[in-house]
Design brief:
This protein is mainly beta and about 120 residues long. It contains one helix and eleven strands.
Amino acid sequence: VQLQASGGGRVQPGGTLTLSCTEPGRALDRYDITWVRRVPGEGREAVACVDHRNGDTWYHTSVTGRFTISRDPVADRVTLQMRSLTPSDTADYFCAASPSPCEVTMRTSTFDYWGRGTLVTVSS
């Protein structure tokens, strides 16, 4: 499983950014996909997850109402649209996959597969 995140960059507070997660081996069809962010020295935090079977979504309370995760089976990718960004959203974002359902991965932040992240910097 070779997950790859892209779309990061620098954005001003209040701005919007959309990240994409792709995987060449169709893993997005087999696993629930979680977006995770990591700040050096602060550990990792699962921010959003999408169920690969029915598209149900889960969100961390800190991003609810601002972030939207969605799965596009035609384009074979999972996106994370991030709105109303604040400096506290600054982190390395990566996508992860696990046989465990979103209810578990969002609670435990443990995964079987993950790829390199994409850096998001929110700063004026």
